[in-house]
Amino acid sequence: MTEFWLISAPGEKTCQQTWDKMMVATTRTNNLSTNHKFNIPDLKVGTLDVLVGLSDELAKLDSFVESVVKKVAQYMADVLEDSRDKVQENLLANGGTVMVTTQFDLVTYITRFQWDMAKYPIKQSLKNISEIVSKQVTQIDNDLKARASAYNNLKGNLQNLERKNAGSLLTRSLADIVKKEDFVLDSEYLITLLVVVPKTGYADWQKTYETLAEMVVPRSTNLLFEDNDSGLFSVTLFRKAIDDFRHKARENKFTVRDFQYNEEEMKADKEEMTRLSTDKKKQFVSDMTGKKGQGQFPSCSSCCVEFTCSPCVCVAFLRGPLVRWLKVNFSEAFIAWIHIKALRVFVESVLRYGLPVNFQAMLLQPNKKTMKKLREVLNDLYKHLDSSAAAIIDSAMDIPGLNLSQQEYYPYVYYKIDCNLLDFKV
């Protein structure tokens, strides 16, 4: 998606002059970036000691909240699986007023940022606001772990059952293939075995099965099912001949499956499969029928995940409880993250530029091809704020490959906001 540079510079006679100078330097002559004012309210300053300590705490909190934002986004992608092209459009942030809430894409939310007075009251101290964010996002992180664990267990159990009902006749479940009438049941002496025979061995099976052991019932074999490679045959014999029959069958490359017809167990397996499949689908869709007044929605083939309906209008593609939770809490975590950025800009600006509070926060969206030039222009514009930092930056620009440090430092307050939250491109 997009990278932003959130910067601040001290106010000149007015903050508007600071803004105008930056605009002239970066856009009016060379179009290096798209710029927006970043509105930070009048927060409580507190003491210098508190600000210094809070600066370090906010740096750690920033990293933590960013990691949670990315985890929620990535898990949304993992849950939606084959519909990953739908992920980005559902990573939204709720904004607006207390009375009217609007969903914004992330770029729009950042560029139109307004402090959420209801969630983060500015009458609270900076420390208290940071603690509110920390508790909120920690809860999201803990809930995500619990929900992810439950969903992954459900998905794993379903995949195990699906594997049992797929694959070759040598390994797959036979419960959905055989019927009660295929077996001799409740006999003290006779038993029906199921044998997997390669297609190339059908003729040999028919010639030899009666002689593989004593006491095989003549003409008792039937072909019950076949796939691309093999067929499943039934054969009836006396119970005491089972071991001998298995041994001889193996010598002839016929495989006797371990299977006993148990109607109750087979019914329970089918019910478990249905339950797990239903539970998984509920994570995505709670209503598969069209509802009047809700407009047109894409068909299952374009948006649904791992199930089909015919005919179908996906009224509630993203209404399922897990995806709904991910959407809501992604928004909460992302909003918290941007508020942490705002807090960091405020605290760092006060520490650098002093009191009374007088700075202009600005959001720059650099043009990819001119990032280096933009950095040079900003350095020239603000190098008077910290000559030592400017000198180091000049040296770094002259020596390719020289990094300033792990933590970027410039004469002006600077924080990067990277909206590339996913591990894949959409």
Automatic annotation (TrEMBL):
Keywords: Acetylation, Hydrogen ion transport, Ion transport, Transport. Subunit of the V1 complex of vacuolar(H+)-ATPase (V-ATPase), a multisubunit enzyme composed of a peripheral complex (V1) that hydrolyzes ATP and a membrane integral complex (V0) that translocates protons. V-ATPase is responsible for acidifying and maintaining the pH of intracellular compartments and in some cell types, is targeted to the plasma membrane, where it is responsible for acidifying the extracellular environment. Subunit C is necessary for the assembly of the catalytic sector of the enzyme and is likely to have a specific function in its catalytic activity. One of its GO terms (cellular component) is vacuolar proton-transporting V-type ATPase, V1 domain. Gene3D superfamilies: 3.30.70.100, subunit c (vma5p) of the yeast v-atpase, domain 2, Vacuolar atp synthase subunit c, domain 1. InterPro entries: ATPase_V1-cplx_csu, Vac_ATP_synth_c_sf. Belongs to the V-ATPase C subunit family. The keyword Ion transport applies. GO terms for molecular function: proton-transporting ATPase activity, rotational mechanism. This is V-type proton ATPase subunit C. It holds the Pfam family V-ATPase_C. V-ATPase is a heteromultimeric enzyme made up of two complexes: the ATP-hydrolytic V1 complex and the proton translocation V0 complex. The V1 complex consists of three catalytic AB heterodimers that form a heterohexamer, three peripheral stalks each consisting of EG heterodimers, one central rotor including subunits D and F, and the regulatory subunits C and H. The proton translocation complex V0 consists of the proton transport subunit a, a ring of proteolipid subunits c9c'', rotary subunit d, subunits e and f, and two accessory subunits.
